[in-house]
Design a protein that fits this description.
Helix 1 packs across helix 2 and helix 4 crosses helix 6. By secondary structure, the chain is mostly helical. The protein has two domains: 2-65, Orthogonal Bundle (Arc Repressor Mutant, subunit A); 68-184, no CATH class. It has helices spanning 2-35, 45-52, 56-62, 67-84, 94-107, 109-118, 127-132, 141-163, 170-184. The termini are far apart.
């Protein structure tokens, strides 16, 4: 009897996870559609859930505010990029990683453009990526300032590139990022 209950609970949990994932996807797509028509801070939960075809309860089961939708998706992008640093093909070729990073970000440009709009042009922190790159080797003041310079420069490059609809020579941008990283090493 206990195994049957566990199996039922697991099936229900799995169904809920799939339903929540679908709700989140619908909310993101609806938010992106609405942001084409009006400013982010003018979008209400009521119009978002109506556009997404979900209930307010479904919205609040997943998020406490509209900006959390963008924050969650940005965090998943950053996590994917940080995880990719572990791949063997990038161990000795950071230019390839930066190149692939720009391609990956281009695939997610719609969400990134929405984040830039919602944050008034300020791409949120990329701290975890910089940390994964091993730039914070110690607590010295020099290293901290080098890290801040690197982070700020990469954030500015990414923000400008995204604002320009991901146009530009990705090979050149990858070279620039490697050069900036080398300055911090």
């Amino acid at each position: 009897m206990k195994n049957t209950n566990n199996a039922s609970q697991n099936a229900l949990r799995s169904a809920n996870e799939r339903a929540n994932a679908l709700t989140k996807e619908c909310l993101l797509e609806a938010l992106l559609r609405l942001m084409k028509k009006k400013k982010f801070d003018q979008i209400t939960v009521t119009e978002l859930v109506k556009c997404a075809g979900v209930s307010r309860m479904a919205f609040y089961r997943n998020y406490s505010s509209i900006d959390q939708i963008l924050k969650e998706h940005f965090e998943s992008i950053v996590e994917a990029l940080s995880a990719s640093l572990e791949e063997e093909k990038y161990r000795n070729d950071m230019k390839l990683w930066y190149y692939d990073m720009f391609l990956f970000l281009k695939e997610h440009s719609q969400v990134l453009e929405a984040i830039l709009e919602a944050t008034e042009g300020q791409l949120v922190s990329i701290h975890s990526i910089s940390k994964s790159l091993g730039l914070l080797k110690d607590d010295s003041q020099r290293v901290k300032y080098q890290y801040e310079a690197f982070s700020g420069a990469v954030r500015a490059i990414l923000s400008e590139w995204i604002k320009n609809r991901c146009e530009g020579d990705i090979d050149l941008l990858a070279d620039i990022c490697v050069s900036l990283q080398n300055l911090c090493s």
